[in-house]
């Protein structure tokens, strides 16, 4: 009887420690005039227990389940084409090792993270491959079809020469793979919330599962971005903020209630000259 009590107590403790959100959704963006929005996150799992998984309890997320991100993040139609991005780390709190790993796996250079000197790369916005109404937003009462991010192009542009064979198809916008140091890295979007463009800005909140081999590890990265139009002198620019948080993972469940690190970066986009 004693051993039964111990096992049940352990199961209850795990369920309490790694509880997901009851509705399985990420937190909504608030449409406030302030230029704030919800943070992002990264999760690491190095082993799998024999206990049953508890995927739908409390403040955790099952990162091994099929994606429920049925449409991509939507950007204003006017962004279509090539842009130059300046990205600068403003702050990094908590487990710096986790934060740096997330930055590196998403294509960033480690030196740019450590020195906070920032990095410059190109990004590309293209027409969506689907005619779904989820890519539409309203401007002056009229429906406009937005554009989407070419994630493969951005990763190749941002990454150093150690990244090779980036594989991405905009029709399969929840999946991307690349090779680095002879290893295949996979990035899959598990959940996504989209803030459609309006006069205040636009953005997205994405929970990513990053899979690395040898040994196989699952990391969950929640990346939140918010953008707004602005001016730099007479030049029209796009200003943004990105927040990435990291979390612990057990048995495929990310404990998204308590981040292990938080990294905040500023973004500035301008047309290449």
Automatic annotation (TrEMBL):
<dbReference type="Pfam" id="PF20670">
    <property type="entry name" value="DUF6816"/>
</dbReference>
<keyword id="KW-0732">Signal</keyword>
<dbReference type="InterPro" id="IPR049213">
    <property type="entry name" value="DUF6816"/>
</dbReference>
<feature type="signal peptide">
    <location>
        <begin position="1"/>
        <end position="17"/>
    </location>
</feature>
<protein>
    <recommendedName>
        <fullName>DUF6816 domain-containing protein</fullName>
    </recommendedName>
</protein>
<feature type="domain" description="DUF6816">
    <location>
        <begin position="69"/>
        <end position="270"/>
    </location>
</feature>
């Amino acid at each position: 009887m004693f051993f039964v009590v111990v096992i049940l107590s352990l199961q209850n403790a795990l369920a309490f420690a790694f509880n997901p959100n009851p509705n399985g959704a990420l937190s909504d963006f608030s449409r406030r005039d302030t230029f704030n929005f919800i943070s992002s996150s990264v999760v690491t799992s190095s082993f799998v227990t024999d206990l049953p998984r508890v995927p739908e309890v409390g403040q955790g997320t099952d990162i091994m389940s099929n994606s429920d991100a049925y449409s991509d993040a939507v950007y204003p139609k006017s962004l279509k084409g090539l842009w130059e991005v300046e990205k600068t780390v403003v702050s990094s709190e908590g487990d710096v090792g986790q934060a740096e790993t997330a930055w590196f796996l998403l294509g960033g250079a480690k030196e740019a993270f450590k020195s906070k000197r920032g990095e410059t790369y190109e990004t590309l916005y293209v027409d969506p491959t689907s005619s779904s109404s989820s890519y539409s937003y309203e401007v002056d009462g009229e429906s406009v079809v937005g554009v989407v991010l070419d994630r493969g192009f951005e990763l190749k542009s941002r990454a150093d020469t150690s990244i090779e064979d980036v594989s991405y198809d905009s029709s399969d916008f929840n999946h991307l793979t690349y090779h680095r140091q002879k290893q295949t890295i996979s990035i899959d979007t598990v959940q996504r919330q989209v803030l459609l463009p309006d006069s205040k800005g636009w953005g997205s909140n994405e929970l990513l599962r990053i899979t690395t081999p040898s040994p196989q590890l699952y990391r969950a990265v929640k990346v939140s971005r918010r953008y707004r139009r602005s001016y730099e002198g007479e030049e029209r620019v796009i200003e943004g903020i990105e927040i990435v948080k990291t979390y612990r993972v057990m048995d495929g469940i990310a404990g998204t209630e308590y981040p292990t690190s938080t990294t905040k970066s500023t973004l500035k986009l301008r047309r290449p000259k």
